[in-house]
Amino acid sequence: MNTKDEAILELRGGAIGMINENSSAEERFQNSTLRPILKFQNDLFVEVFKNYAVKQKGVFFTLSPEKKMSYIENVIQRDIKFRNSLKGIIIGLFTIDEYHNYIINSSNLNKRMMNLLIERLKSQVILFEEVA
């Protein structure tokens, strides 16, 4: 029987991006943990953001494409409750070892996590047109 950690790793898939002996610990964590989780949870992140935008009176859907990009970035950086919710979606798929590595350098890893998520959502801004 697989352990929970083994099941999580199997579900998420392998590393995304280059990892070599010159990679920093943060870069290794980003490519072996964060990127696979963000890819795996992508559809959920899109739906969570759509729901957030609707609950904010739908202003997002009236914005120009450039302003939508800024909106995504500003919301994730400034709305602490929303950002913490997004972090929870990611951290919930950490293994125990990954969580221990995360807490050692959580500040820098949180920045990487949110920057990766911002770029992922920005690259899919067209998907947010569906809910108006």
Mean pLDDT: 91
**Distance between termini?**
46 Å
What is the number of E strands?
Answer: 0
Largest sheet: none
* Residue fraction in strands: under 5%
This entry's quaternary arrangement is single chain
Number of helices: 7
Point out poorly predicted stretches. none
- Going by helix content, strand content and strand pairing, the class is mainly alpha
What does this structure look like?
The protein has 132 residues and is an all-alpha fold. The protein is 69% helix and 0% strand. It has helices spanning 4-12, 25-40, 42-55, 65-78, 80-91, 96-104, 106-122. The chain is elongated, with a radius of gyration of 16 Å.
Summarize, please:
This protein is mostly helical and 132 residues long. The chain is built from seven helices and no strands. The longest helix has 17 residues, at 106-122.
